[in-house]
Specification:
This protein has helices at residues 10-18, 39-42, 66-73, 91-100, 116-123, 151-165, 190-199, 213-218, and strands at residues 3-7, 25-29, 56-60, 79-85, 107-112, 138-142, 175-180, 204-209. Helices cover 31% and strands 20% of the residues. It has one domain (3-219): Alpha-Beta Horseshoe (Leucine-rich repeat, LRR (right-handed beta-alpha superhelix)). The chain has eight helices and eight strands; from the N terminus they run βαβαβαβαβαβαβαβα. By secondary structure, it is α/β, with parallel strands linked by helices. Strands 1-2-3-4-5-6-7-8 form an eight-stranded parallel sheet.
């Protein structure tokens, strides 16, 4: 078995994945399962696995096991999606550490509730720091709750987009999807979105209203890459 899209009880998923050493794509899901595991237990299935051929990983919540899994597997992920990330403390640090281990990542989607500015800043290309995911072509970010980004977070996101706009054509960020809460006319952040249209310069930027979360998550399924 090389492709797995599971929505079953934790022990059952572990049994299936343990017998799949050649796994290339893995989507772990638990919603709607009778004995829905606690968030901190959901990624624990990765503690018992190794998948050196894996290039696509989608995980719901509980991200603490992801980095050890990647390091143990020595896999070269090209696609990574974190869905409904809102449980681990300092989630942004976990995500940044994972990205540092994935220099070949091309497609990254993260849906969560945490401090966004540190993530955007870490992803900003600078001569003073190591570039995270230099081959990144797609980035999707936001929270299903529809919480509006703070001004500092919007500024950090725009700085990241500007820095990746100027990369070589083979590496430059091509698509940005932001799950957001549409602002009112009085929202002081409205001008930031107007700046995106001016500053993106060839990057396909789409703002996805939070009531269209399904469409946003579908962007995390880049079938055209494989």
């Amino acid at each position: 078995m090389t492709h797995y899209h599971g929505k079953d009880r934790l022990p059952r998923q572990l049994d299936i994945l343990s017998a799949a050493p050649n796994l290339g794509e893995c989507r772990l899901a638990f919603y709607g399962v009778a004995d829905h595991p606690a968030p901190e237990s959901r990624s624990r299935v990765l503690d018992y696995l190794s998948a050196p051929s894996l290039h696509f990983l989608r995980v719901e919540e509980g991200l603490g096991s992801v980095l050890p899994f990647i390091q143990r597997s020595s896999c070269c992920l090209r696609v990574l999606a974190f869905v409904d990330c809102r449980t681990d403390p300092k989630m942004e640090n976990i995500v940044i550490d994972v990205l540092r281990a994935l220099p070949l990542l091309e497609h990254f989607l993260v849906d969560g509730a945490f401090e966004w500015a540190p993530l955007y800043t870490a992803m900003t290309i600078s001569e003073l720091s190591r570039t995270l995911c230099p081959s990144l072509k797609f980035f999707g970010c936001g929270t299903q709750s529809g919480s509006a980004l703070q001004h500092s977070e919007l500024d950090a996101l725009l700085s990241m987009v500007r820095s990746r706009r100027g990369m070589g054509s083979a590496q430059r960020l091509r698509s940005l999807r932001v799950l957001w809460q549409p602002p009112s006319d009085r929202d002081p952040n409205v001008h930031i979105w107007e700046e995106f249209a001016k500053e993106a310069g060839g990057i396909d930027v789409v703002l996805v209203p939070y009531n269209q979360t399904f469409n946003f998550l579908e962007e995390g399924e880049p079938h055209h890459l494989f």
